[in-house]
Write a structure and sequence with these properties.
The protein is an alpha+beta fold. Helix content is about 45%, strand content about 20%. It has a single domain (about 1-145), classed as 2-Layer Sandwich (Alpha-Beta Plaits), CATH 3.30.70.141. It has helices at about 10-15, 20-30, 45-50, 60-65, 80-90, 100-105, 110-115, 130-140, 155-159, and strands spanning about 1-10, 30-40, 70-80, 125. Bound molecules: adenosine-5'-diphosphate and magnesium ion.
């Protein structure tokens, strides 16, 4: 049940100046940040991260989006962390994402608009979609020496 998942605050989230607000949502849920760094990825790395999407018609726009500025890469640990983080993040399309989710509160982009313009959906944040992706993405973005074991106060009260 204890899981690690990968999150990246995308270039739009960084440029909007809401890094702190986003991180605090995970902290308030009692999840633990065990790795964090700012990274400006290139096309080659983007292809590794989005390896299952490179053949999609929207990939060019997605690649352009993810390399346009630095991202904040984070590894989050907690009970059911993969599912809980996706719940806090909300669904892919901000137009559909409920208020209270990161994508619902901080963005309003739609598939329709993105596809018409040939750009990626600007949705603030990436989060691993499932266990397999989480394992792959944590390993791709972080070395073992970049993740840390420590105890939070929540561990005393939640676990
Ligand atoms: P998620 O990020 O919610 O896991 P996906 O893995 O399906 O979503 O897609 C990765 C990213 O690609 C999305 O977050 C979004 O930025 C972009 N994207 C997905 N589908 C489309 C689309 N039809 N048009 C434009 N951009 C898209
Ligand atoms: Mg995904």
């Amino acid at each position: 049940m204890m899981e690690r998942t990968f999150v990246a605050i995308k270039p739009d989230g960084v440029q909007r100046g809401i890094i702190g607000e986003i991180i605090s949502r995970f902290e308030k849920a009692g999840l633990k940040i065990v790795g964090m760094k700012m990274v400006w990825v290139d096309k080659g790395f983007a292809k590794k991260h989005y390896k299952d999407l490179v053949d999609k018609p929207f990939y060019k726009g997605l690649e352009q989006f993810i390399i346009e500025g630095p991202v904040v890469a984070i590894v989050i640990e907690g009970l059911h962390a993969i599912e809980i983080v996706r719940k806090i993040v909300g669904p892919t399309e901000p137009k559909q994402a409920q208020p209270g989710t990161i994508r619902g509160d901080y963005a309003h982009h739609s598939y329709e608009y993105a596809d018409k313009k040939g750009i990626a959906i600007k949705n603030i944040i990436h989060a691993s979609g499932n266990k397999k992706d989480a394992e792959y993405e944590v390993k791709l973005w972080f070395g073992l020496d970049e993740m840390h074991d420590y105890k939070t106060v929540h561990e005393k009260h939640v676990f």
